[in-house]
Write the structure tokens for this entry.
Amino acid sequence: MALKILLVDPETKWLEETQLFLKDELYQVASVSNGKSAQAILFEHKFFAVVISLETTDHSAVQVLNYIKSNCPNLKIILTLEKESLEKREELDCGKLKKMGVNSFLTKPFDKQALRDVLENQQSIHDLLDTANKRGKKEEVEDEALSDDDLTSISIHEFYSSKAVLFDVFIKLSEDKFVKILHSGDTFSSERIEFYKVEKKLDYLYFKNKDRMKYIKFNNYMVKGLLKSKKIGVKEKSAMLREAAVKLMDIAYSDGIKPQILDQGKEICTNVLGIIDNHKNLHKLLRKHELFDPDAYSHSYLVTLFASSLIKQLEWQSESMIDMMALAAMFHDIGKSEMNEFLISKRPEDMDNARLAEYKTHPEVAIRILEGNKVINDNIKQIIFQHHEAWDGSGFPKGIKGRKIMLMANAIRLIDDFVHVIKSEELPPVDALRFIISDRDGVKKYHSDLIEGFIKIFIDPKSLRKSA
Ligand SMILES: [Fe+2]
Ligand SMILES: [Fe+2]
């Protein structure tokens, strides 16, 4: 079924044009010009998303947002802003609007493709595949406007065949010359992949940089499907998860970070995984967690990579500290593997009180799970136990503050938040860190040495220090 979108905007011409564009994109669209009508139609019908102008009158946009918050909590909200009003309204607080449920912002005038991308970013993989399947097949075409900088390469050996790909796929003819071989929605059969591999002798396929979040969603979906397959052994499943984590890191997490630091971080991850593989009990624990929540592995991998890279930047670090840090980071959320399955996909801010209380036990549960394990010493356990404590005392489970918290535990807290911001806000790493350090209250959760150390792993640390 087509997804339903509501457009709310005082400008009739914009409404008409946007409605036509979205219909072409296979959405079902309704439009109204004021807030009162918006509430009336939201009361009657269920929509997937609303695209609402901040200039909405006769019930302001804020009134409509409040209405949505209490009456349609799952509705995705895209707020459109006029450039001039953005300059005038100093009081416009994006953080506050986010808390009111706004998922994304667009500043007018924006091209329709940007609206399309924003809407697609809000959709589940199932919605995306459903729409992609309905789009017709098209021919191979050369894309004149593309250059090497616009595309991300992916080894053809790592590409999964699928009923529908969610993004355009290209092959490279020569420098800055690309041919689109698949349009979003086309089937990419294993025969066709073989054809490009064997006949055309291609090693890489390409997709547009702007599609990387879609690529990641697609890849995770394919990996999760394969994890359920009985034909694939446990060892291969672990290998797939590991590959997916490295790929995720290369595509979404490496922008703006010093390459040598990423290489060192990857090496630390490989070492710690080697230690885990040599200890049956640890290996078993990690696998149990992976199979319970397939996202858990890439999350732990990313936290390990960045937390150990961060510790490496501090003056007083040592080899044994880095090993300790890496093990703690790899197992920091192991307590979640005993939680209710319902909590897997939820963020704490979306949980009710009972669920939140259960979620907050995961550091303690981890200690119980790891009890008696020789490789995980008391220091590592303590880091894991404290990984949600905050330097200003606002964390859990104990709410301790300052020097009572181990610095390494606080490092995991910072990196954990950083990894979540990249994922939920879909920001490149440098902007995710900027997002964290520009929140004057939020930044008090971390020791300042850690922020300083973390800034150092970026290629242009000066630009970050300025905004800190
Ligand atoms: Fe956690
Ligand atoms: Fe975590």
